Amino acid sequence: MSEKDMIERYIYEVTRRVSQETRDEIRMELQGLIDDMCHAEGCSVEEALQKLGNPAEFAKRYREDNNYLIGPEYYDNYIWLLKIALFGIGISAIISAIAQGIIDVENWAGFFTNFFTELFTTFINGTISMVGIVTIIFAILEYRKVKVEIKPEEKWSVNDLTKNAASVKSWTPHSLPPVPDKRAIINRSESIVSIVFITVFAALLLFAPQLFGAFHYDGNKLQSTACIFNLNEWSTIAPIFIFCLLIALADEVIRLVTGYYCKPVMYSSIICNTLQVAGAVILLKFMPLFNTDFAAQIQEYEGISEFSNADILIYWGNDFFANFILVFICVIACIEVAVTIYRTLRYS
């Protein structure tokens, strides 16, 4: 490892643990500090970094507090993800409110009453649930760095670093991980889109599962609906469905927070996709997920005597439809895991 590479690794490990707004300033300050130590004291880069100590501990000198549930390393991403999740909750609340208003409408006054009631209820309940879920995920990520004892903020200087030599002997600059390869960087926009989709889908499943289906109108008035899900057993089905979505959400959060392909991301992908496939098997093979009368209800509402061979509804209610969805889920999960493993082993 060259001295330049060693410095870049050290600065990266320090700045990724501080707030986004201060990273550029701390990066320049730390670069200048290392240069000054090397020139003024005549020590090597390795000796200078050894004096500065473990970057995880050194980064704490730039923090204003040491007692927190979610620290600076994750706080920016935590707030950003909350905004994304609340945006998704807002979309699902609006969709649900509009649909409920149309379904139960008798007149315009009734539409607006149903709309605002459903909007408020769905948004509040969804917000409370999502804030709790995201906070728990980030608290778990932060847990390994939480400090039990509370220490007051202290002023420090380079001369003070030698006093902590005993506490950093186990750390050496050679243990610094490399700065991630550009090809190992995870596209944040993909994670954001996935998080929004999962949030909207989960909220609609929780608060308006009846929207997943077909609507039958007589003129301008809604007469009936045919839901693809088995609403009679929904109280049993929904927890497993939501669990699978939360596992997917946790995986995307880990990808978003980590920012690049590495072993934690790889392990997360393997575990989360395995759990999701297991959940899909339970839902599709062992539980009455779908409304078996859905195809018959469509025939009745639309006056169709018989479906053609090209119509997918001809397979409704038999194992072919469930097996097709299960195979599709397994293929997608395998592709995602394979890509993650390849990029981790190739570029990490």
Distinct helical segment count: 11
Q: Walk across the major sheet and give the strand order.
A: 1-2
Task: Give a count of the beta strands, DSSP E runs of length 2 or more.
Answer: 2
Question: What's the structural domain tally?
Answer: 2
- Low-confidence spans: 146-154, 164-168
Distance between the termini: 16 Å
Describe this protein's structure.
The protein has helices at residues 3-15, 23-41, 45-52, 55-58, 72-103, 108-143, 188-207, 234-258, 263-286, 294-302, 319-347; strands at residues 213-218, 221-227. The chain is mainly alpha-helical. Strands 1-2 form a two-stranded antiparallel sheet. Strand 1 (213-218) and strand 2 (221-227) form a beta hairpin. Helix 5 crosses helix 7 (188-207). The two termini are 16 Å apart. Mean pLDDT is 77; it is low at 146-154 and 164-168.
Concise account of the structure shown:
With 348 residues, this protein is mainly alpha-helical. Helices cover 63% and strands 4% of the residues.
Quickly list its features.
single chain, two-stranded antiparallel sheet, 2 strands, about 350 residues, mainly alpha
Write the layout of secondary structure elements.
Blueprint: H1 3-15, H2 23-41, H3 45-52, H4 55-58, H5 72-103, H6 108-143, H7 188-207, E1 213-218, E2 221-227, H8 234-258, H9 263-286, H10 294-302, H11 319-347
Antiparallel strand pairs: 1-2
